[in-house]
From TrEMBL:
A biological-process GO annotation: fatty-acyl-CoA biosynthetic process
Catalytic activity, EC: 1.3.8.6
Signal peptide: none
Pathway: Amino-acid metabolism; lysine degradation; Amino-acid metabolism; tryptophan metabolism
Domain annotation Acyl-CoA dehydrogenase/oxidase C-terminal: ranges: 235-381
Keywords associated with the record: FAD, Flavoprotein, Oxidoreductase, Transit peptide
Known catalytic reactions: glutaryl-CoA + oxidized [electron-transfer flavoprotein] + 2 H(+) = (2E)-butenoyl-CoA + reduced [electron-transfer flavoprotein] + CO2
Acyl-CoA oxidase/dehydrogenase middle domain segment(s): 132-222
Cofactor: FAD
Annotated protein name in UniProt: glutaryl-CoA dehydrogenase (ETF)
InterPro entries per the UniProt record, alphabetical: Acyl-CoA_DH_CS (IPR006089), Acyl-CoA_Oxase/DH_mid-dom (IPR006091), Acyl-CoA_Oxase/DH_mid-dom_sf (IPR046373), AcylCo_DH-like_C (IPR036250), AcylCo_DH/oxidase_C (IPR009075), AcylCoA_DH/ox_N (IPR013786), AcylCoA_DH/ox_N_sf (IPR037069), AcylCoA_DH/oxidase_NM_dom_sf (IPR009100)
Length: 387
C-alpha cells in the first residue's frame, strides 16, 4: 500500500480518535475558508478577521482550557494539531490563535483569580474579546529581564508607563496582558482598551506576517485597578511560563507550513515539463522532495512526543527549545528550497512557498530566536550559561 506523502511514518495512526477528529475539522476549515483568501490577504496586508467567529465556533481559542470557561478542554496534542493545520494555511492565522490561547487566555487561567477567569475567558473563547501579550520591548529583544516598562502602586490602582514592541493582535485587542517592573518584581496586568493613556500603533511595511496585525503599545500614566493585576505570579517566571506554552504550539505550526510547500512543489513538479519530461522525473527534484519528506517526518515525531510529554506533565523547557529550533529551521529551509524548485513562478504569492518563507522569517525569530534555543540546549548539555 502506498505511503501518504506527508506522513511517511503513519504518525496519524498514533493519534487518538478525538485527536484525528480535531485535525480533520481544522484541516477542512483551512482548505475551505483559509486557502481561498489568504494569498489576497497577504498581498493586501490584511488580517482575515471575518474568520475569528468561525475559529471560535470550532473551539480553537483556548482549546486546552476547561469547558467550565467555555473552552474545548482538549489535550496538548490536539492543540498542536490545531496549530499545524492553521499554519498550513498561514502563519498569521496560527499566530492569532497562539496569542489568544497561549499568551492571553493561559495566563488569565494560570495566574489570575476566579473573578478574572469568569469575566474574560468565556468571551475570549467565543472570539468576542481579543487579547494581546505585551512583553517585548524595542531595546530588550531576547532579554526580557531588561524591561523598562514600570508600574507603581497608587492607592487601589497601578500607574503604568513604558512601551512594548512587535505585539501580535495589538490593534485588534480589547485587553492587553502587560508585564511591567514593580517594586515587588515583574507583574502582569490586564490593560483594557479605552484606559486613558493606553494606545496601540500598527506596524506597517512588513514583508513577513502580512496577514497578521503587529503593533507597538504605549503606556502614558495608564491607571489600572488592582483588580486587573494577575495576583498569582511574580517575576519572569510569569511571562516565561506563557512563552513556553506558545513555543510548544509553534513546534507544530511550521510542520503545516512545510507540508503546504511540499504539496505545492509535488504538484508543480509533476505538471511542469522541461526537456520533454516532468521536473519530478529528474533525480535532483526527487532528492529534494525526499529530503523534505524526511525532515517533515522527523519534525512530526518530535512534536508528537513533545505533546505526549506535555500531557503527562513531564515536558521540560529545553525539550520545547529543541523542537522549536529544529522545526522552524526545517520549515524555513523547505519553504526556501520549494520556492527555488518552482523557478520564476515561485516568487509570486499565487504559489505558497514564498509566502511561507517570508512568514517563517518571523516564526524562527519570535518566541526566542534560533540562537536563543540553541543556547538553551547548550546550557542543558554543559551546565554553563552562555547567555
Amino acid at each position: 500500500m502506498a505511503l501518504h506523502p506527508y506522513d511517511l511514518y503513519d504518525v496519524r495512526a498514533l493519534l487518538s480518535e478525538e485527536e484525528r477528529a480535531v485535525q480533520d475539522a481544522v484541516a477542512r476549515f483551512t482548505d475551505e475558508r483559509v486557502l481561498p483568501i489568504i494569498g489576497d490577504c497577504f498581498d493586501a496586508g490584511r488580517f482575515p478577521s471575518e474568520l475569528v467567529p468561525e475559529m471560535a465556533a470550532l473551539g480553537l481559542l483556548g482549546a486546552t482550557l476547561p469547558e467550565a470557561y467555555g473552552c474545548a478542554g482538549l489535550n496538548s496534542v490536539s492543540y498542536g494539531l490545531i496549530c499545524q493545520e492553521l499554519e498550513r494555511g498561514d502563519s498569521g492565522l496560527r499566530s492569532f490563535a497562539s496569542v489568544q490561547s497561549s499568551l492571553c487566555m493561559y495566563p488569565i487561567h494560570a495566574y489570575g483569580d476566579e473573578a478574572q477567569r469568569r469575566r474574560w475567558l468565556p468571551q475570549m473563547a467565543a472570539g468576542e474579546v481579543i487579547g494581546c501579550f505585551g512583553l517585548t520591548e524595542a531595546h530588550g529583544g531576547s532579554d526580557p529581564a531588561n524591561m523598562k516598562t514600570h508600574a507603581r502602586r497608587d492607592g487601589d490602582d497601578w500607574v503604568i508607563n513604558g512601551a512594548k514592541m512587535w505585539i501580535t493582535n495589538g490593534n485588534l485587542a480589547h485587553v492587553a496582558i502587560v508585564w511591567a517592573q514593580t517594586d515587588d518584581g515583574i507583574q502582569g496586568f490586564l490593560v483594557e482598551r479605552g484606559f486613558r493613556g493606553f494606545s496601540a500603533q500598527e506596524i506597517k511595511h512588513k514583508m513577513s506576517l502580512r496577514a497578521s496585525v503587529t503593533s507597538a503599545l504605549y503606556f502614558d500614566d495608564v491607571r489600572v485597578p488592582d483588580a486587573n493585576r494577575l495576583p498569582n505570579v511574580k517575576g519572569l517566571k510569569g511571562p516565561l511560563g506563557c512563552l513556553n506554552q506558545a513555543r510548544y504550539g509553534i513546534t507544530w505550526g511550521p510542520i503545516g507550513a512545510a507540508i503546504a510547500c511540499l504539496d505545492e512543489a509535488l504538484r508543480y513538479s509533476k505538471e511542469r515539463v522541461l526537456f520533454e519530461r516532468p521536473v519530478a522525473a529528474t533525480q535532483s527534484a526527487q532528492i529534494k522532495l525526499a529530503d523534505w519528506a524526511r525532515r517533515i517526518t522527523t519534525a512530526q515525531l518530535l512534536s508528537l512526543q513533545l505533546g505526549r510529554l506535555k500531557d503527562a506533565g513531564t515536558m521540560q523547557p529545553t525539550q520545547v527549545s529543541l523542537a522549536k529550533w529544529n522545526n522552524c529551521r526545517m520549515a524555513i529551509d523547505i519553504a526556501r528550497e520549494a520556492r527555488d524548485l518552482l523557478g520564476g513562478a515561485g516568487i509570486t504569492t499565487e504559489h505558497c512557498p514564498i509566502r511561507h518563507a517570508l512568514n517563517l522569517e518571523s516564526v524562527i525569530t519570535y518566541e526566542g530566536t534560533e540562537t536563543v534555543h540553541q543556547l538553551v540546549v547548550g546550557r542543558e548539555l554543559t551546565g554553563i550559561n552562555a547567555f
